Amino acid sequence: MSPRASLRKNLIRLAFENPDLRPEIIPLLKQGYDMSRKPSREQVAEIVDIPWQEWEWQALPDDIWRFFKRGVSGTILVPIKQLTPIRAREKGIANANKFMWLAYYGTMDRRKPLDLRDNQDGTFTVLDGNSTFANAQKSGWKALAGVIKE
Fold it and tell me: Looking at residue 145, what DSSP letter applies?
């Protein structure tokens, strides 16, 4: 593992274990991404109209607060390894990827945290947000924001 990857891994762990430090850590995790691809208003309109079958999947940077709404009561960060989806729909995954990509650049609303069921064994079932989970997993994210509903 490169020194940069090791540092990033340690920062993610530190942010997960110390929520009060997240405002200081998140900007450090954002560094190194190419932020020059923000679409224009015209491009956003075109992108929104692209049928899901024609959307080319985009890897999403592991920067969850650029994708999820902040301040949702009961939100926790859960390592992806502890999440189990209940479905995977190709259409939902493609559309989620498109809308998450637009949210990342601030051209679409951020997503609400996943709805989760606590399995009482350290794992959680994804009740709502399965397509978001699929995109995060495929993009190599370490954790997701969720709210325990059951």
Answer: E
Q: Does residue 80 register a pLDDT over 60?
A: yes
Mean pLDDT of the chain: 84
| C-alpha pair distances (Å), 141 with each of 43, 64, 150 | 27, 9, 24
Supply the pTM of this predicted model.
0.72
How confident is the model at residue 27, as a pLDDT?
67
Q: Are 15 and 25 in contact (CB under 8 A)?
A: yes
Structure tokens at 57: 């999947």
Q: Mention the CATH class of domain 33-148.
A: alpha beta
Give the closest residue to 24 by CA, choosing from 13, 32, 15: 15
Which residue ranges make up each domain of the chain? 33-148
